[in-house]
Inverse folding.
DNA sequence: CTGAAAGCGCTAACAC
DNA sequence: GTGTTAGCGCTTTCAG
């Protein structure tokens, strides 16, 4: 790290200025497309830049300008299709507005989540996106509050009320609520509800509440045996459901399965498919991921609208930077994507579900 | 963008120095855990930092140090599980070495791929990772060569020979070759090969070559009808295979399917499953993605070893920075993950495949 | 339209 | 051990 010497790292703006016989200010103007430069001068400088393969240093530039044109995105795990999808949508949107994306896969440990936010603050990112409700801590969100004092924070699919944080999410409680009603309208009244609670507490409890209230709204008494907390994973769910199916006759029975995640639904489906007897059980997943397309019969799934949420959040960021006022909370409704494991029309004679 | 004034952006190192009654150098030392500072002074400064919520500017720091501790990662599409997986593995590895990850999802257009590389160069990233063979252009890789003059480039699962670029990949040709041999040993001699050629030309042709050579090695004459170029997508493949199955009797027949991607294999599986007659067709996918677990029967798939490739590449980067010599090319062998759609033991009486 | 010069926040010689 | 100070490469006022 020898100092006081340069050149090994390529040319800088000063070199280009010298080579073009203009000042650094002019070169800077050319680089930044500042109109107040003669066409002649501009082309001159440009050609010097070309010929010398000059690559302006974006950080020095952002450093001077006090904006790095970078936003940080946090998710617990990109290898999970849901986050990968959200990330993909956000990244594309942000790039269109000229922002680069700094990615942090934090896992679910609080210290790591905090660490990522601190690092992002040190990087002086222009904004932070938090994907999923894993970033809304149950107890103490002080670190979010503090971070938001430095830079705007966007929650994707989670809600929390804090200054300078903006939440855009899908109403998953309502989504489950409606889905339950649709199942019931189709004559499916005994619904096994599968969810993985341990993480993402907030979203999990929202969905569960939707299930319970949905049943209540239909005048159905909830059966505790039909609410199953499972570990995330196809096989664990498969085993669990297989066991439940085995003692079906003994007590609780069900003719529908609603899961808080496609993976769980698929695990359940495998359990059902492996039964000897040909059971007619409707299954509905959640997230409408690619996985829902891979299983056979293809999984009907609740779409939590990442396609609309993510671009929306990006737009909001842009408006914010333009100085416009933006809402601190926007919530969109989910959509049921019907595939082979449940169809509204096929299962009932009501073609529309009324509220 | 008012200049010549500060404070609105928070404190800087000079403020902390003043508040602690020491010099900026000392504060810098404290921040960077430089041991040559009295415990007393250190704690003093630290407490001042704490009390004032001072957040050092990582860019100014990297700027001085001439390393941003950032690496750029390019992939064509994070929403694709394969890339998401690779990204996840790389990101984790890099973070352990203190690097942040700048993500670019470039798509497959050359201009966008070039643009991303240029942007990364402007960001002065410490290295660039390119995931997948989509970044190895068929004709002209001049931009890669030039970029590599500025910063080391790592290809993940692709090979190209250029100064300062390092390739770590899985020998997919060999993988397909061996798989064909295993199928044949199991008595499956008529193998429908499904691949999507249009993009990732290099990887695609490698695999195809593996298929052809595999057949040749087994003394089987290749049947052009059994080599199908398809578009990526479950349903398009499903339709294609359904058509082929329909006219099975007319000409070509097959009792095995080998696909260059799990998604294709799953599409084919759906076609097979929907046949009336109970067909015994072995299916093997490629990538060993989560999708392979979702379908029923679960898909046997070739694992191209991202789990070993990615950490390995990260290690190499680290060695490179430590000044050690690293190999410009490391290639690992694939592994066949047996699931329900094909089992070596079940299908043949050879428990081991000999070369 | 162009140039001179003062920063941006931090690092690392070098001197004490 | 600690302080002084000259940069890092670029932006932006302010004069001209």
């Amino acid at each position: 790290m020898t100092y006081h010497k340069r050149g090994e790292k390529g040319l800088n703006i000063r070199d280009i200025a010298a080579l073009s016989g203009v000042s650094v200010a002019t070169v800077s103007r050319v680089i930044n497309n500042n109109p107040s430069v003669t066409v002649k001068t501009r082309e001159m400088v440009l050609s010097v830049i070309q010929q010398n393969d000059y690559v302006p240093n974006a950080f020095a530039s952002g450093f001077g300008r006090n904006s790095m044109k970078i936003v940080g995105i946090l998710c617990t795990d990109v290898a999970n299709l849901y986050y990968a999808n959200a990330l993909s949508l956000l990244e594309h949107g942000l790039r269109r507005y000229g922002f680069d994306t700094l990615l942090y896969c934090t896992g679910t440990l609080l210290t790591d989540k905090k660490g990522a936010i601190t690092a992002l603050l040190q990087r002086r990112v222009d904004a932070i996106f938090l994907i999923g409700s894993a970033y809304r801590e149950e107890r103490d969100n002080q670190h979010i509050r503090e971070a938001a004092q430095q830079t705007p924070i966007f929650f994707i699919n989670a809600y929390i009320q804090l200054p300078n944080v903006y939440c855009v999410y899908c109403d998953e409680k309502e989504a489950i609520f409606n889905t339950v009603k649709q199942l019931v309208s189709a004559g499916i009244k005994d619904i096994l509800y599968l969810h993985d609670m341990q993480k993402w507490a907030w979203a999990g409890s929202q969905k569960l509440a939707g299930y319970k209230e949905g049943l209540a709204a239909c005048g159905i008494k909830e059966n505790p045996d039909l609410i199953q907390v499972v570990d995330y994973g196809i096989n664990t769910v498969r085993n669990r459901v297989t066991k439940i199916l085995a003692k079906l006759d003994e007590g609780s029975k069900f003719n529908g399965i609603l899961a808080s995640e496609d993976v769980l639904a698929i695990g359940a489906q495998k359990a059902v498919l492996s039964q000897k007897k040909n059971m007619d059980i409707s299954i509905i997943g959640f997230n409408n991921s690619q996985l829902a397309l891979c299983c056979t019969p293809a999984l009907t799934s609740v779409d939590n609208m990442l396609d609309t949420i993510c671009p929306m959040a990006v737009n909001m960021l842009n408006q914010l930077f333009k100085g416009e006022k933006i809402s601190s909370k926007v919530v969109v409704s989910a959509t049921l994507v019907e595939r082979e494991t449940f169809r509204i029309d096929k299962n009932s004679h009501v073609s529309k579900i009324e509220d």
In short: Confidence is low (pLDDT under 50) at residues 1-7, 348-355 of chain B.
